[in-house]
Amino acid sequence: MEYRQLGKSGLKVPELCFGAGTFGGQNNEFFKAWGATSDADTAKRIVDICFDAGINFFDTADIYSDGESEEVLGKAISHLKREDVLISTKATFRFGKGPNDVGSSRYHLIQSVDRSLKRLGTDYIDIYHMHGFDATSPVDETLRALDDMVRAGKIRYIACSNFSGWHLMKSLSVSERYGWSKYVGHQAYYSLVGRDFEWELMPLAVDQGVGTLVWSPLGWGRLTGKITRETGVPKESRLNSQLAVDIGPQVEDEYLYKVVDALKEVAKECGKTVPQVALNWLLRRPTVSTLIVGARNEEQLKQNLGSVGWKLTEDQIAKLDKASEKPKTYPYWHQAQFVERNPFPV
Question: How far is it, in rounded angstroms, from Cα 19 to Cα 319?
Answer without folding.
Answer: 29
